[in-house]
Design goal:
It holds the Pfam family HTH_1. Keywords: DNA-binding, Transcription, Transcription regulation. Belongs to the LysR transcriptional regulatory family. It is a single chain. This protein is α/β, with parallel strands linked by helices. It is built from eleven helices and twelve strands. It has three domains: 84 residues, Winged helix-like DNA-binding domain superfamily/Winged helix DNA-binding domain (Arc Repressor Mutant, subunit A, Orthogonal Bundle), CATH 1.10.10.10; 84 residues, 3-Layer(aba) Sandwich (D-Maltodextrin-Binding Protein, domain 2), CATH 3.40.190; 97 residues, 3-Layer(aba) Sandwich (D-Maltodextrin-Binding Protein, domain 2). The strands form four sheets. The chain has a five-stranded mixed sheet with strand order 4-3-5-12-6.
Length: 293
């Protein structure tokens, strides 16, 4: 009699799935290792074991960077769904759940907070996070509010958990091999991308470079730095961005730094409000120690 279990698909080592998911999210074996408290070598071996079991390549591997293959992107959808189901089922069994409402600027939440939030949840498994964008309006009373303030003087921000510096960046499609030698003046001969109507970041950058801000090939203005970064990656022009908001794009070569030693302060992210609630204290402390993560 035929064994009905013989037709079952052999599942991959389940312990490899979190490593795959986190590496796909962060685009880095090092960051995935940091979240899972393992070494990058251990993460690499887990992913190789998963690929060997599946018989497909999940990542393209380049110098200091990884990116998903088509098969990897397809598989990630199912892995994340399965992990979410397991996590929700586990959380339902845990007592004393704590809900923490965080309001933050949308670009900071998407590009800096989300890639790091897994580390916080690893340390605080009983917390349910509700992350809201300040730009979309508040739907709950926040426990933590992250605000942004402009400014060029570091002494203005003694309590900031993250100083905002700006650098000039562009797509390699725009100027390619001359990127390392281009002068600050020459950058203004190219189309300029602005993330505010008053060109605040560009004016501070030009001031630090010792040149006047006089774009000679026109400009395109966006109302968010998120939109400006997206436009920059398509090759529309030279943009300004905070290095910590474009970590993945720089790592994967989608954007390149231009004159990286010119990086003036343009503002800071701070924890707004007065005395935090008890459940927010731990998160605020985590923010203060996560800027280098």
């Amino acid at each position: 009699m035929r064994n009905p279990q013989s037709n079952r698909i052999k599942l991959p080592p389940l312990a490899t799935l979190p490593a795959f998911s986190i590496a796909a999210r962060t685009g880095s074996l090092t960051l995935a290792a940091r979240e899972l408290h393992l070494t990058p070598g251990a993460i690499s071996r887990q992913i190789k074991s998963l690929e060997d079991t599946l018989g497909v390549q999940l990542f393209h591997r380049r110098h200091n960077a990884i990116s998903l293959t088509d098969a990897g992107r397809q598989y990630l959808i199912h892995v994340n769904a399965a992990l979410a189901t397991l996590e929700n089922g586990t959380l339902a069994l845990l007592p004393d759940r704590v809900r923490l409402v965080i309001q933050a600027p949308i670009t900071l939440a998407r590009r800096w907070l989300i890639p790091r939030i897994g580390a916080y949840l690893q340390e605080n498994p009983s917390v349910d996070l509700n992350i809201q964008s300040l730009a979309l309006g508040a739907s709950d009373l926040p426990d933590v509010t992250i605000s942004y303030t402009r400014g060029a003087d570091e002494t203005r921000f003694p309590s900031a958990f993250l100083l905002d510096r700006t650098v000039a960046v562009c797509s390699p499609l725009l100027i390619g091999s001359v990127a390392k030698t281009v002068t600050p003046e020459a950058l203004l001969d190219l189309p300029i991308l602005l993330d505010t109507a008053d060109a605040w970041s560009w004016r501070r950058w030009c001031e630090a470079a010792g040149i006047p801000f006089r774009p000679r090939s026109g400009s395109i203005t966006f109302d968010t730095d998120e939109a400006s970064i997206d436009a920059c990656m398509t090759g529309l022009g030279i943009g300004q961005a905070s290095p910590f908001l474009i970590e993945r794009e720089l790592r994967e070569g989608q954007l390149i730094l231009l004159r990286p030693t010119i990086n003036p302060i343009v503002g800071a992210y701070e924890i707004a409000g007065s005395t935090p609630t008890g459940r927010a204290v731990g998160f605020n402390q985590w923010l203060q120690t996560s800027q280098a993560a």
